[in-house]
Design brief:
By secondary structure, the chain is α+β, with helices and mostly antiparallel strands. It contains two helices and 23 strands. It has a six-stranded mixed β-sheet with strand order 1-2-14-4-7-6, with no helix packed on it. Strands 15-23-22-18-19 form a five-stranded antiparallel β-sheet, with no helix packed on it. The protein is rod-shaped. The N terminus is likely disordered.
Length: about 300
């Protein structure tokens, strides 16, 4: 018997929790100013008072789309952008039958005897559903004669704040990574080999570099502002030419053409202009570990 009573109490307790309301928390300065953390699965309680108006404030970027209540005759609901104003109101109950009476001359007259019902705690309980352009809100409306009145209910959105903070952190990390990549791309490398010689065809002086070196990974050709940046080709032992991948960076007053490898022979072309470059130090001072880029945070990927 004792076990049965305990089980029944547990069941009743669980049943009560199923209908637990989200009661807005009061501000420290004034308990009538309240805040509620939004949860799509919660029903929020609003305690109104006869003769007073309660205000609900949604997110700044929300706009109210639709309002529905189970007792529209007893509640005055006005929306303005992201604000909802709630006020209990009396309503006129129409009689089911017309009342009969007689005037002073004995003539029968008919009239409707309407009854004005004032807001009361028992009959004014209902629900309220508000849809906005972003969310759905479900409320229980309750009429209170005590001091437990919500003058204002302002919604807070912790999940949105967390998402915004995570997005901001991700943006900072991405910006930092891009900054590191930019630094790596602009990093001044340490030359390992200056043994470069040029053969400049007649009239090709404007595509001849002012200096050339490699760092064991890339080859660097520097051009002053009067020069034209040429196309770069690999010249192999079988006398065939193949175009090389390059990118351009600034180093002081020079535009530096960065060739994505080291090579023994390179050809520079621009129209009919031609410059041949011989790397006499090629493979004389190899790196202990070959890198593909100038920095650790940059990976080189060749696309078609």
């Amino acid at each position: 018997m004792k076990t049965s009573i305990i089980s029944s109490l547990l069941i009743l307790g669980l049943g009560a929790n199923l209908y637990a309301l989200n009661v807005p928390e009061s501000a420290k300065a004034d308990k009538r100013m309240t805040f509620a953390q939004y949860d799509a699965n919660d029903v929020f309680l609003i305690n109104a008072k006869n003769g007073y108006v309660s205000m609900v404030k949604f997110a700044d970027d929300e706009r109210i789309v639709n309002i529905a209540t189970g007792f529209s005759d007893g509640w005055d609901l006005v929306d303005k952008e992201n604000f909802l104003f709630i006020k209990p109101k009396s309503y006129v109950a129409q009689p089911t039958e017309q009342q009969q009476a007689y005037d002073e001359d004995g003539n029968q007259i008919q009239y409707d005897q309407s009854l004005v019902i004032q807001p009361n705690e028992e009959d004014w309980k209902t629900n309220l559903i508000v849809t906005t352009n972003k969310r759905i809100y479900v409320f229980d409306l309750s009429l209170q004669s005590s001091k437990k009145t919500n003058y204002r209910v302002e919604f807070l959105y912790p999940l949105d704040l967390q998402a915004a903070a995570a997005s901001e952190q991700l943006a900072k990390e991405r910006a930092k990574a891009e900054e590191e990549i930019e630094k790596d791309l602009k990093r001044t490398t340490i030359p390992r080999n200056w043994e470069f010689y040029m053969h400049v065809n007649k009239g090709s002086e404007t595509i001849a570099p002012d200096f050339a070196y490699d760092d064991g990974v890339f080859t660097y050709l520097g051009f002053n502002s009067t020069k034209t940046i040429p196309s770069v080709f690999l010249y192999d032992e079988t006398n065939k030419e193949s175009i090389l991948n390059t990118h351009l960076k600034k180093d002081g007053k020079f535009d530096v053409l960065v060739i994505h490898q080291t090579a023994k022979q390179i050809l520079l072309r621009s129209g009919n202009k031609l410059v041949g470059i011989m790397n006499s130090g090629y493979a004389k001072n190899p790196l202990e570990q070959t890198r593909e880029t100038t920095g650790k945070s940059v990976n080189r990927e060749i696309t078609q």
